[in-house]
Each structure stands twice: as structure tokens, then as C-alpha cells.
């Protein structure tokens, strides 16, 4: 073989190798945040999602765990205030060198609004795309069929929320109270909510929240059309009940948050950076085929 031909082969192989390395390097890691009644690592839920993403996309996938054990992580979904969780996760992710060049975030159920709070409050992180699956961005007013190990637990939480969601005790004790949104008493909700009203800029405007949210490339919200847990369904697309009643709903663009652009969502929508996706299943019920087709384009 002539030297010039050998050199061309070696040179071409070198370019190909470099291109492969660059393509691999351009794939961003993925961070997952589980919802109520789940943990970071159950093999039938987020543990399985993590393996699926690692094998299909071939990137580093971190599934957030609150506490030092699976049991503590499970309890955190009910008993560790979202503000504490967001602060801890911000610190943990900021110190992970594998995330220093950015990552894509996926929040499952209540993990969706927690992940958004992380974007708004944790300025050191570089999240590219935020995907929320069944998130409750405008909160909930009811917990039918809530995921728990016991139906009695669901009933007990529901009773507590109906009668005492906005007491200081409940706001500090029960996670779901912090995003309980009573449309029949908007003033009480805005003045008493220790989490959701704040991250939605409903009582006052935090410009940092707006600026940090604007750094996202895409904000993708997935609604499950047969959801039997999130009430109302529209909260998954940042809609909610029309204030003053609990029957008729309005979409994001009809809400005060959007019209007054209290979070910068109107600007993001004008720039085509908000994506509304649908899935026909019940809460967090999706197939691998749907996930590949619908979400993989936002995980590059």
C-alpha cells in the first residue's frame, strides 16, 4: 500500500473518530425527579426509566434521591418541604462535575413543579430543556386515586387538605399542602402557600425566577388525557379553574400568570419555546414507543 493511501486512511479514521467523540460529547446528561408515592430507583418506575434512557440514548442519567435510603426518599414525597428539597438538590447537582456543561431535566408528577422551582431558584445550574410529565404547575384541588401504599393514607391526606391546607402546621408538615390551590379562596391560597404561590410569582414578582426560566431552551409540558389523579387535568399544561369556582377551567393563555407575564411564559410562548404534548394514558402511563417518538427530540 502506498504511503499516501495509508495516510489518507489513517487521516480519515482520525476525523471519523473525532466526529464520533464530538457527537457523543454533544449529548447532554439527564436528571430525573420522581413524584409522590415513588422513589428514585424502583425498578418498575424511575429505576426502569433510568436504564431505558441510559441504553437508548447512551448518556449519564441521574435520578434524584432525597435522604440516605429508599425509605427516606419515599417519605420525602409526602413529608419533606419542597423548599428543603429544592435547596438540597441544587447543592447536589451543582457539585456533580458530570452536569457542569448542562443537562436536560425530566420531572414526574409533583417532581415537575419541583424541577421547575430548581430552574428558577438555582442559578448555578445549566438546564437545557425542562420536561414535566403530569406536573401540577397551577397546583391541585383534590387528590382522587392518589398514589400511596395504602388507600387509608390517601383518605387521611385528602381530609387534612380539605380542612386545613393553609394552616402553618400543614404547610410545614405535608408536601401536597404546599401546592394545594383553592380556587374558591384565591387570596388565602396566595397568602398562605409556602411553595407554589412563590414559584408562580403570584404574590410578588421575583425577577430572578423570570430570568432563570428564560435560560431554558424548551419548556415541555405533558398532559395525560385520562389522568385520574391530577385534579384539574389542565394544571399539567399550566391551566386551572377559573377563579371563584371549581367547575370551569381556563388554559394557560387565559390565566393571570400569562396575561400579566408574571413568569415570562408569555415571552417564551411568543418565541415558540413552550411545548404542549398529550399522552392518552392515565397518570404517568406511557409506552416506550410514545416516549421515544415524543420526548427523545428534546433530550439531545
From TrEMBL:
GO terms for molecular function: palmitoyl-(protein) hydrolase activity. The keyword Disulfide bond applies. Residues 1-25 form the signal peptide. It catalyses: S-hexadecanoyl-L-cysteinyl-[protein] + H2O = L-cysteinyl-[protein] + hexadecanoate + H(+). SUPFAM superfamilies: alpha/beta-Hydrolases (SSF53474). It comes from the Eukaryota. Keywords: Disulfide bond, Glycoprotein, Hydrolase, Signal. It is an enzyme of class 3 (hydrolase). Its EC number is 3.1.2.22. One of its GO terms (biological process) is receptor-mediated endocytosis. The keyword Thylakoid does not apply. Belongs to the palmitoyl-protein thioesterase family. This is Palmitoyl-protein thioesterase 1. It comes from Anopheles dirus. The lineage of its organism: Eukaryota, Metazoa, Ecdysozoa, Arthropoda, Hexapoda.
Amino acid at each position: 500500500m502506498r504511503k499516501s493511501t495509508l495516510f489518507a486512511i489513517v487521516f480519515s479514521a482520525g476525523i471519523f473518530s473525532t466526529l464520533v467523540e464530538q457527537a457523543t460529547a454533544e449529548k447532554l446528561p439527564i436528571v430525573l425527579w420522581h413524584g409522590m408515592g415513588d422513589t428514585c430507583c424502583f425498578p418498575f418506575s424511575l429505576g426502569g426509566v433510568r436504564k431505558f434512557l441510559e441504553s437508548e440514548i447512551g448518556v449519564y442519567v441521574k435520578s434524584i434521591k432525597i435522604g440516605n435510603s429508599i425509605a427516606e426518599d419515599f417519605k420525602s414525597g409526602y413529608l419533606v418541604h419542597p423548599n428543603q428539597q429544592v435547596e438540597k438538590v441544587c447543592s447536589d447537582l451543582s457539585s456533580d462535575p458530570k452536569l457542569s456543561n448542562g443537562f436536560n431535566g425530566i420531572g414526574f408528577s409533583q417532581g415537575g413543579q419541583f424541577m421547575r422551582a430548581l430552574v428558577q431558584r438555582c442559578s448555578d445550574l445549566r438546564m437545557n430543556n425542562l420536561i414535566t410529565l403530569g406536573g401540577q404547575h397551577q397546583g391541585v384541588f383534590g387528590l382522587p386515586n392518589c398514589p400511596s401504599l395504602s388507600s387509608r393514607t390517601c383518605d387521611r391526606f385528602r381530609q387534612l387538605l380539605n380542612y386545613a391546607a393553609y394552616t402553618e402546621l400543614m404547610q410545614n408538615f405535608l408536601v401536597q399542602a404546599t401546592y394545594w390551590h383553592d380556587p374558591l379562596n384565591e387570596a388565602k391560597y396566595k397568602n398562605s402557600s409556602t411553595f407554589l404561590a412563590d414559584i408562580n410569582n403570584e404574590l410578588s414578582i421575583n425577577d430572578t425566577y423570570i430570568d432563570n426560566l428564560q435560560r431554558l431552551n424548551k419548556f415541555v409540558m405533558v398532559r395525560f388525557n385520562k389522568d385520574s389523579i391530577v385534579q384539574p387535568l389542565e394544571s399539567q399544561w399550566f391551566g386551572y379553574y377559573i377563579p371563584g369556582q371549581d367547575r370551569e377551567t381556563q388554559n394557560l393563555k387565559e390565566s393571570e400568570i400569562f396575561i400579566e407575564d408574571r413568569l415570562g411564559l408569555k415571552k417564551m410562548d411568543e418565541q415558540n419555546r413552550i411545548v404542549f404534548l398529550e399522552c392518552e394514558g392515565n397518570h404517568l402511563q406511557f409506552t416506550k414507543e410514545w416516549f421515544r417518538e415524543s420526548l427523545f427530540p428534546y433530550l439531545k
